[in-house]
Amino acid sequence: METEIELADMNGERRAARRNSTLLAMHDLFPSANIVSSGFQNTPFPVAREGSPISSMPGINVPLANTEEDPAPRSDVQDPETGATGGGDPKKRFRKVMVLFMATIVEALLWGFVFSFGLFQNQYAAEEKFVAKEVEITMIFITAVGSMYGSGSVFEVLFTRFPIVLKVCSWCGLPVAAIGLFLASRSTEAWQFILTQGLFYGIGAAMQYYSAYSHISDWYSDNKGFAFGMMLAGSGIGGVVIPLIIGPILKSQGSTRALSVWAIVLVFPTPFIWCFLRPRNWISASASPQPLDWCFLKSKVFWVYQGVNIIQSAGYFLPGIYVATFAQALGLSAWEGISLTATLNICGSFSSLAIGKLSDVCNVPNIVIASMAAQSVSVLLIWGLADNMAHLSIFVIIYGLVAGGFTSIYSGMAREIRRDCPNMSDTWMMGILSSGRGVGPILCSIITLTLFTSNPEDTIKEGYGSPYEGFILFSGMTGLLGVAVVCLAKWKRWI
Question: Range of 147's domain?
């Protein structure tokens, strides 16, 4: 047995020697062939460099060597954690992280300010220079939210058809929003605030917001729900920090100074956004426009999700708008109202992260059902019966956790819609869904004008039986209606 092993080793050494001699002979015959060797189980084996004479000789099959002594990391390697391409390149990894970080900052500055509108609502109602009904004040918020959401599909169309628009919006969005707030600080009538703090600010914020949206989609190819959830969590963070900054200024110096201060704050991070919030590669302005895929209009999946999206948004914003004024109507202090708004926003941040991650790995219809059912229960049973600070605190925590991250489901919805429309981009689909969410505030404004025809009483006992009863019932019933639509669609096998 040992003799056989020794003979096998000797035969292996002889074969290796013959290969070495062949390698040397080839090198002598073809000096310019630049033949090298590569090890395979410690046995030399000849390989040739691409383009060398030996590699192109007929009848000779010699493996090609890697011509790069220190190959650069591939730019198309996928990051296993984030799913972004370019994960192997440290510079691209840094750029990828900074894109997500700056997008989160944009979300915090723009949406955090919008979701802190309850503070301005109380201030406007108290200022002598601003004479308006409460529903007119609410229209400022409705206009801002409606324009920010409703313009989503418009901007995504422009970004796709005319790439230069993406660059312009990425650079000019925050300054335009800041100009809107500066003009609002000089306004005195309701319609002026609606045009400036509502429409002007909303358009500028949408320019910046959807350009950041597109950059996130460009950098993150997998786990997109978690990436968007991280970005959307910024609105909750901003909703906590901004009231702590704006609240004291509003109370001590009024809305004029507060709006001017926040206009300056919006301009400050613009140079950093120019540097870091960028796509992987800017598309040339002379590039031909990309075609748009409209096949989603024939998809039942799209219409189900868009319908549920509109229903949810119609009732979602009412608690955020009125929880602070509701607290004061119960006899609570202004700071307690601010703390309720901040708690609602921070819980919405955690909700965005959690629901965004779940949308990557779980069944999307089940997530929608769970979120909207819990939203309805929290409004009807907790807010409707709330009569003190403890009850309201429980409500805003639960409501923020179950409803605050609904938009993080968009990536999962877009993924399912793309099964019917494989050539459709995620950003285009998510822009369509965002526009649908913009319909909700319009319905909300109609409901506000219908259900809230008089100013609230000085004090109330609980939600039911107060001027807020209509809001509570409407917000709660929209959640139940959304659950019914999704359950029907699952039963009919539309989704």
Answer: 90-491
